[in-house]
Every structure is written in structure tokens, then in C-alpha cells.
Amino acid sequence: DAKTTQPPSMDCAEGRAANLPCNHSTISGNEYVYWYRQIHSQGPQYIIHGLKNNETNEMASLIITEDRKSSTLILPHATLRDTAVYYCIVRAGGTSYGKLTFGQGTILTVHP
Amino acid sequence: GAGVSQTPSNKVTEKGKYVELRCDPISGHTALYWYRQSLGQGPEFLIYFQGTGAADDSGLPNDRFFAVRPEGSVSTLKIQRTERGDSAVYLCASSPQGGALYNEQFFGPGTRLTVL
């Protein structure tokens, strides 16, 4: 699986957009970008995923650059409950696509 | 509906003892995953079941670790001769369609294992 690079921590004011970057410069053509988050003392929670087009759901938007070497997760109106560790994961196809390979993630702190 | 449940929520044991950790996946989910998370780190993959069989056990660190899913539902992670380095949160996840590239994994709250 391709390796991802994320900033270790970010801050955001409540009500503002949180933009979390991820670099995945070695991504292959059949690999998807996934985002999960983990709130303290809970298991990870799926947020969104995409291949090459921008995606939006009720939780967030995912913007993937045209060359697919990086992406940004956008939480449009961050709340205190969005404080968590956010993981960007690139997931391979083939026989190993059952597992998720987590990195260190970005600790997002949303403050009042 | 009910999510993934794991028991016990906390387990304290002594070095050298045997432990079993249980995972009840979401009903109907065919794929089940075990991960281990050390303090300050992201979850680390251990093993993945598709039905009753282990489809990928490449993450099991050594032969002290073993997992079963005899009826394709509940799974048990077994650790023999526990060591202090086994202390971690053990996470279980399930998904409705194992092997599909876009499937979502639903995680349980984890079992915190402490080896004294």
C-alpha cells in the first residue's frame, strides 16, 4: 500500500472549516484514498473515500488533486465533537485489500 | 442497530498468562478484522477473516497470537504466554462485503489489555 504523510496536529475554531491535508505521492492507479477518524477512547470511524473525483457526504468533502498525489479532507463547519485523530489511508486492490494500513494521523483540535 | 461489540472492555493479566479476547461483529457481516493499537500509534492490522477462514494473517506478530471464527460470526483472539509488550488496545472491525475495494469497516470500542 502507498504511504501517506499527514501533519501531526492542527487546530481549528469552532464553526470554521477544517482542511486536513494528506500527501500520497506514490499512489497507484487502482488505489483509493480513505479517511477515518478516531475520537478519544473509541474505535476508528469511516468518514469518506474516493478514487479520483471529489466526493461529498453528510460528514465531509474529499478533494483529490488531478495527479492524485495529494488530497484534502474538509469538515465544512467544525464542532467540538470533531476533535479527533484523522487518518488518511491509501488502500490497494488485489488480495490484500481487506486490511487498512494506518499511519500516525493528524490530531485535530477544535476550540471554542 | 447494534454495532460491533468486544469483551471484556478491559483485561489485566500477568506476564506468561493466556488470554482470550472476544469480538461480536455486526449481524450479517462476512468480513472481520483484528487490529492492535499501542499508545500514541495508529491501529496495526493483525488478521482478517472472510467467513470462517483467515484470508490474511500477515499481521500476527508471532505464533503466540492466534484467532478463530468457527461459525463465521463471533471471533476470538487468543494470546499465549503474554508479554508486557502485548499491552495495547485490541480493536475488532467488521464489514458487510469482504474483499470489495470500497467497503467500510465498522469498528468496536476495543479491549484494553494490560500485561503486568
Question: Can you offer a commentary on this structure?
Answer:
The complex is a heterodimer of chains A (112) and B (116). Chain A has 112 residues and is mainly β. In chain A, 0% of the residues lie in helices and 45% in strands. Chain A contains no helices and 9 strands. Chain A has a 5-stranded mixed sheet, with no helix packed on it. In chain A, strands 2-7-6-5 form a 4-stranded antiparallel sheet, with no helix packed on it. In chain A, a hairpin with a 5-residue loop joins strand 6 and strand 7. The relative contact order of chain A is 0.35. Chain B is an all-beta fold and 116 residues long. Helix content of chain B is 0%, strand content 47%. Chain B has no helices and 11 strands. In chain B, the strands form 2 sheets. In chain B, strands 2, 4, 5, 6, 9, 10 and 11 form a 7-stranded mixed sheet that branches. Chain B is globular. The termini of chain B are far apart. The A-B interface holds A 30, 32, 41-46, 49, 85, 87, 91, 93, 95-105 and B 4, 31, 33, 35, 41-45, 48, 50, 55-56, 58-59, 91, 93, 98-99, 101-102, 104-110.
